[in-house]
Amino acid sequence: MKPLLAQGRPATAPRLIVSLLAAAFVLAGCGGGGGSPGATQSSQQPPPATPAPGPGGQTAADIDASVLGDPFQYMNLCAKPRTGVDFQGRPFPDRQGTLLDELKFLRAWSHRYYLWYNEIPNTYRMADFTNPIDYFNVLKTPALTESGQPKDRYHFTYATEEWEKMQSAGINLGYGVTWKRNSATAPRTWLVTLVEPGSPAAAAGLQRGDMLLNVDGVDFVNGTGTEAVDKINEGLFPETAGVAHRFTLQRGSATFDVTMTATEVRVDPVKHVQVLDTPSGKVGYLSFETHNAVSEKELVDAFTTFRQAAVSDLVLDMRYNGGGLLYIASELSYMIAGPDQTRGKIFERSQYNDKTAPQEAIPFRSTAYGFSSPNPVRAGTPLPYLGLKRVTVLTTSGTCSASEAVINGLRGADIQVDVIGSQTCGKPYGFTPVPNCGTTYFSIEFKGVNNKGFGDFADGLAPTCQVADDLSRPLGDPAEGLLAAALAYRQTGTCPPATRARMVPMEIVRPPVQEISIYTAPRP
């Protein structure tokens, strides 16, 4: 899927530059909130559906999911079946089918599992679509929230191989750099926020705070027009490994040029594990960037280190963590709180549409799930824990989904969670990835609430202290703005002077995006 830089119009695909986090966030997540199935959160109800003529005089209602039946009868029936095996050596399940089979699968699936299935407009003819992704993009509620935002901002697809590589092995095709941006349209300000160790970006010397000026000879800040946009996207979001691209960046008052070659970068989800000595005791610090399978072992190792060091407090840096697996979020929360604080309490209860029976709640998991990864934890391994009654979380608008579920879940267990930074993204829903014919589909299936029944944070979780992200210092530096504020607040209970004037609204851009939360239990 080729990303496009916006030219004054919205984009819908998750790899598009305009579809990342914050206001334009159309990606994943889990968590609670959002109203009952089929009920809009605003007074603005979707317009009544008017069936449109279909093939052979049919109306759209004639091919609605109510007559399509079980979606599984259409699954893996593909217009262009894949042959051979996937990157893990498993045979593809594809069978010869048609485009109509793929569209029927999506409509039947949405009718059965989509949280707001009865708000999907029934005015689109399958005959008018030439590919399943375009059809999937319209299978969602058009309703708006009270603030005027789309009720469903989290409806997207991935190429199945790309998604599976990200989740099971933490592999992304690119340069190993995460950007923070003000806009997808000119004038653009894109700043480096993260550089993956051992990546092409690290080898090129990129640092936090570097500003992007030029991509392959095209003015990135002010470039417009189809030719310029295409060239920028080809450089920023390479689709083929081994291709080199040139970039000009600015650091302070100096500019410099680098050449980076795209490769499959293995992302390290847990970084900067440190024990900080403070006047009131030892404080653990770690930056956590995605709740994927790889992170399970790394979190276990980090908390083992903290427990051995007898830390008495923790600063959890999730400022760029867009989400991931709910079971990882549950395990992380248990490792913070321990058994005494979580006994008899749930981490999150998922609530599906009215076609699905109530499901077992997700507990605070005290043992490892044992996710498959290059360095797995054996299933059932007891998790280390700190037994804290207070934790500090660093956030930005890039803190989303499963990361918000950690905050909400801990608060549901009466753990004091101090949030230092910015309002979180507001991702109170979740889903199970649905692979079919080489594409994995993400469609909201549930909302979640914590042990106290709270989960309504569609506008995000407010910070205890509002503090601007500090790109002038590396993560983990005690003098870095958010970490310094967190350390000061735990000592004094007082927020530093407001930095709101310096807090220019920015969004997080990861090529490709990783902010996907999923429910890992068997599908109901």
From TrEMBL:
Ranges annotated as biased composition (Pro residues): 45-54
UniProt cross-references to CDD domains, sorted A to Z: Peptidase_S41_CPP_like
Record InterPro entries: ClpP/crotonase-like_dom_sf, PDZ, PDZ_6, PDZ_sf, Tail-specific_protease
Location of the region described as Disordered in the Swiss-Prot/TrEMBL record: 34-62
Pfam families xref list: PDZ_6, Peptidase_S41
Domain PDZ, first and last residues per copy: 168-234
Protein's name according to its UniProt entry: S41 family peptidase
